[in-house]
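Q: For a teaching handout, I want to show students what a protein-ligand complex looks like in token form. Below are the inputs, and the small molecule is D-galactaro-1,5-lactone. Please produce the holo structure.
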Amino acid sequence: MRVLVTGAAGSIGAVLCSGLVDRGHTVVGLDRVPEPEGFTGGWFTADCADPDAVEAVFVAAGALDAVVHLAGIPSEASLPEELTSHVVTTAALLDAMVRHGVSRMVYASSNHAVGRTPRDELGTDLLGTAVRPRPDTFYGVSKVAAEALLSLYVDRYGIDAVATRIGSFLPQPESVRGLSTWLSHDDAVRMVEASLTAPDPGFAVLYGVSANTRGWWDLAPGRALGYDPQDDAERYADVVQPADGDDAEAAHVGGPFATRQFERPALD
Ligand code: 15L
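A: Here is the structure, written as tokens, with D-galactaro-1,5-lactone included.
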């Protein structure tokens, strides 16, 4: 497939671009920063929040099969900043996709779309995707809103869109919470390739985590699309050091984002 990857210079982007190329796909990178050294494939430097710039990228890029949209602030900021970073960028890309006949988006949503879900409400159950959106931050709110936008465009225009609610994307888990939330690099590539190639997903949501023994999220929606995670954070359990904040982080699935330190007015 010929895939436009936004946020291609970021930590997830770099891993996915090389992983998709290794699997035989052609990758076109898009980021606000210039092409990283060693990148193989086309590159565009532009801001996805600028619809004219996005349109120019689609014109210059030529035929695309799909967009993998990773670009966006990966942490908490004010509500307007988050909405621009996640919702406006998604809208600009979706509009360009409709104009240019690109029929699939794989979207980097986040576990923080449901991060305010209390762990004690789950008991021993896994958290599925047919649950109330329960964001823990303005970051999480904007991910929920971006997912809603995908749903609208799937219904209006018949495109396919897979929202991947990513856990903790790291080379290896670094905290006790991470033993539940880790997404390995290799599983991230597996997840995105499955989301790109699953036949007719329509609008779908999956949890982007590895097959962690201590996982909290239901992997069945991902497996239904062909995402077959192979890694398990448990193999790092002996090297992860307990920390003071572990109990506070364990109260909600969003961990630190659901703690009081993130509480602030929306427009500050
Ligand atoms: C995310 O979605 C964030 O982008 C990242 O900064 C981490 O907070 C990660 O989730 C996580 O929950 O570990």
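A: Two things your students might notice: The pocket of D-galactaro-1,5-lactone is lined by residues 74-75, 110-112, 166-168, 181, 255 (CB under 6 Å). The longest strand covers residues 104-110.
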